[in-house]
Design brief:
By secondary structure, the chain is mainly α. It contains 21 helices and 4 strands. It folds into 4 domains: 171 residues, no CATH class; 70 residues, no CATH class; 90 residues, no CATH class; 58 residues, no CATH class. The strands form 2 sheets. The protein has a two-stranded antiparallel ribbon with strand order 1-2. It is globular and about 90 Å long.
Length: 441
């Protein structure tokens, strides 16, 4: 296990948050103004430029003004970390802060050309499906500059609907075959009735009765809950849980480009709503590690930033089920924690929060998410010495007497450390004695 129990630095303040009381003078955060985003990849440094300035508000000042209740303050405090463009702990993509998302919505106009020029700056924040849709809109805008996003998706509707129906029918047929082989005849007939209703809605031409993935899953789940109450053979319960998991694989606008086009080609969606939807899935939201539905509390040790797509798709599942759906989550959680550690060294994030959330996910995942926190405490003692060395490298400024004194002390310590290393490595006991006498002098 890589996580070690560490004494929390600001446990008193966290305890006050639990009791809905905050000592506001202890917190003094300045307003930050952002022009661009800089973060480094594996081999190269990537830069995303934002064409306008963002002003971030202070949650503690908002609470003092009465805009936020003290019970909502932990959420706002953790959500403020997203302004440093954190990677999502579930999918690993960079998240858009809510303040930036609000300004983007105000900048979107009815002009398709202006909307494409604006969205180009945030193309790297989009999820894979949204990126593909944006490329289609960009290519068709060159051919038909007068058409807005909704009109372009209407042109692609017929072909996308055929592909979507094929995807849906293959999953529904798999559910029917699986239920035939693993359930009783009575249960199989009930599942087949639910599937037949769904198939009729899929092939129905009337817009009044359309297939709803959400309603179909609710019907399957309600049927499985009835069987659990009736205390049938446990193997049937396992089969029904597998059927429910298979039902959740039905395509949505988040994981299928055809489902996206079919959904947003309907008349109730406008050009602006489609433009906003391309980025709304990447917006940073607050996720409860233990959901509120299962008794999770709104405290800092149970809250983490997560993108809206993964937050909505999680439902009320536990962390282990979330890892099954997203096998890359442990690696992405390490990226998220590494970014928080980097910010903590600049006094932007509280170290106690990092240790608490790491321990929470370790316990809830039963050791599957085991992040490395060793970087959090490296060079913590020598931070003052590092700052002195950086200041001395600046040629425009002369070093003070105190700084020169610290440098001399560092040199003496290094020399003594080198002598001790030589003592431990030397095999001759007589040589050790001589060196010890030299060190004493």
């Amino acid at each position: 296990m890589k996580i070690t129990p560490i004494k929390l630095i600001n446990s008193n303040a966290l305890q006050k948050n639990k009791n809905n009381y905050v000592n506001y003078p202890n917190y003094n955060y300045s307003t930050i103004q952002a022009d661009c985003i800089n973060f480094s990849g594996k081999n190269k440094k990537i830069e995303y430029k934002i064409p306008f300035k963002i002003y971030y508000s202070n949650p503690f000042q908002d609470a003092k003004a009465g805009l936020i209740s003290p019970s909502d303050l932990p959420k706002k405090e953790i959500l403020e970390y997203s302004k440093y463009f954190l990677p999502c702990p579930c999918c690993g993509d960079i998240m858009i802060p809510p303040q930036l998302m609000d300004t983007i919505k105000t900048k979107i106009t009815d002009s398709p050309i202006d909307s494409i020029e604006l969205l180009k700056n945030f193309q790297n924040f989009m999820h894979p499906v949204e990126k593909q849709v944006f490329r289609i809109l960009e290519m068709n805008n060159k051919k038909y500059p007068n058409l807005n996003f909704h009109d372009i998706l209407k042109k692609k509707y017929q072909r996308a609907e055929r592909q979507l129906v094929l995807q849906q029918m293959s999953i529904l047929s798999d559910i029917r075959l699986f239920s035939r082989d693993n359930l009783t005849n009575e249960h199989f007939n009930k599942v087949s009735e639910i599937i037949e209703k769904a198939v009729n809605k899929i092939f129905n031409k009337d817009n009044n009765e359309t297939f709803s993935r959400k309603l179909f899953i609710e019907e399957i789940e309600s049927f499985s809950s009835i069987i659990e109450i009736q205390k049938y053979d446990p193997k049937y319960k396992k089969a029904l849980t597998q059927i429910v998991e298979k039902a959740y694989t039905l395509p949505t606008s988040y994981n299928s480009i055809h489902a996206f086009i079919v959904k947003y080609a309907k008349n109730k969606y406008t050009h602006k709503s489609i433009a906003e939807r391309l980025l709304s899935g990447s917006e940073a939201t607050i996720e409860h590690a233990t959901p509120e539905y299962l008794g999770g509390k709104t405290i800092s040790s149970n809250l983490i930033n997560e993108c809206a797509r993964d937050n909505h798709s999680r439902r009320h599942d536990d962390i282990i089920q979330q890892i099954r759906e997203h096998p890359q989550m442990p690696d992405n959680m390490q990226k998220h924690i590494d970014k928080l550690i980097e910010l903590s060294k600049r006094n932007k994030v509280n170290k106690s929060y990092i240790t608490e959330i790491a321990m929470t996910y370790y316990n809830l995942s039963k050791g599957l998410i085991d992040v490395d926190l060793s970087k959090l405490w490296i060079n913590s003692k020598n931070s003052k010495n590092q700052n002195i060395n950086k200041q001395n490298k600046n040629q425009d400024r002369t070093s003070t007497k105190a700084e020169r004194r610290e440098i001399r002390k560092l040199k003496i310590k290094r020399k003594k450390a080198e002598k001790r290393k030589y003592i431990t490595t030397s095999k001759n006991s007589y040589a050790k004695r001589i060196i010890k006498t030299i060190c004493k002098r």
